[in-house]
Design goal:
Elements: E1 6-10, H1 16-29, H2 41-50, E2 57-62, E3 65-74, E4 84-91, H3 100-114, E5 119-124, H4 129-137, E6 141-152, E7 155-165
Parallel strand pairs: 4-5
Antiparallel strand pairs: 1-2, 2-3, 3-4, 5-7, 6-7
Helix pairs in contact: 1-2
């Protein structure tokens, strides 16, 4: 059986609801963010407005359905870090492990280079082996682990930082 192709494109404001749905899955599943409260559409629309220009958002579609998204986020408000972007990738739970992240990541890296970023960093959980596998095969290296960086459901969570020079 032939699988449908994954199409990546820049996100549109009308994609915010589907992006929100996928993000809230990531929050619920406790595998990709220290956020613990589901976000609202209003939150996501404001977030989307902050992700125009250099800090772009991409979506991945299969047969017209958004199944994942990625973004370049501001790493710091300090101008010394203007060439560094922080990366987010979220995939609909029904499509995890099916190449969505692998389709999004190189396109997002291309966007980062085109927007004069020289480095991408990502914060990930040490137990998120699927995410780390994607980043490692794409040339990201582990920089270190922040121990007890956050608390989710009453438990301390370590956060690993990875980076890639573009």
């Amino acid at each position: 059986m032939e699988t449908s192709p994954i199409i990546t494109r820049k996100a549109l404001v009308e994609d915010a609801e589907r992006i929100l749905h996928i993000y809230n899955q990531g929050i619920e599943d406790r595998i990709a963010t220290l956020e613990i409260e589901p976000k609202t559409l209003s939150y996501m629309e404001n977030w989307f407005q902050e992700h125009q220009g250099r800090h772009t958002v991409l979506v991945a579609e299969i047969e017209g359905k958004i199944v994942g998204w990625s973004s370049l986020n501001r790493y710091s408000q300090r101008c010394a870090y203007d060439g560094v972007a922080e990366l987010s990738i979220y995939v609909d739970r029904e499509y995890r492990g099916k190449g969505i992240g692998s389709a999004l990541l190189p396109v997002l890296e291309h966007e980062a280079k085109a927007n004069e970023f020289y480095k991408i960093v990502i914060f990930t959980f040490p137990f998120n082996k699927n995410g780390q596998g994607l980043y490692r095969k794409s040339g990201y290296r582990e920089v270190g682990v922040f121990e007890k960086q956050g608390v989710i459901d009453g438990k301390f969570i370590d956060v690993m930082i990875m980076e890639k020079m573009l």
